[in-house]
Amino acid sequence: MTTERRDLPSRRNHRTQKVRIANQRTAYISVHDDPAPAELFIRVRGVDCTSEVVGLYDVLGRLASLALQYGAPLEKVGEMLMGAKFEPAGPVQLHARIKHCTSLPDLIGRHLLVEFCHRADLAHVSEPKPEEEV
User: Which helix (DSSP H) or strand (DSSP E) does residue 21 occupy?
Assistant: First the structure.
């Protein structure tokens, strides 16, 4: 069985979410802005971010992107990442709907599921109501 890789346009928009975990690490999660995202970029910063940590998250983003481009369901990718437990973990700042995580992969998985798969049950804060037009 041969599966075709999804071609992405040469020019595409991304939605980027900046988060801070336990006041230790800042992450930028960028997802191809599409109803069915097929690309994920992860950039991390912090005092504990060695070149190995930065490289590991770059590889994680590339692997998730490749899986999505070959047809893996976004919900499965998110569920695979969610639930990992290691430091830094704890309170999440700068995300409107997610306020706690057990690790950065847990946060990324939860972010994908809440924002793109409409899994409101995994959010800590309800979706903001659209502002009424004046």
Answer: strand 14-21
**Bridge-partner residues for 21, per DSSP?**
25, 92
How does pLDDT run across 117-127, given as a tens digit for each residue? 999 999 999 87
pLDDT in tens, 23-70: 989 999 999 888 888 999 999 999 889 999 999 999 999 999 999 999
What's the mean per-residue pLDDT of the chain? 91
Token pair of 115, please?
A: 């924002």
- Which residues are bridge partners to 28 per DSSP? 18, 43
Torsion of CA 68, 71, 76, 77, to 10 degrees: -10
The letter for the amino acid at 49 is: C
Task: Write the DSSP string, 50-95.
Answer: -HHHHHHHHHHHHHHHHHHHTT--HHHHHHHHTT---SS-EEEES-
Q: Is the pLDDT of residue 104 over 70?
A: yes
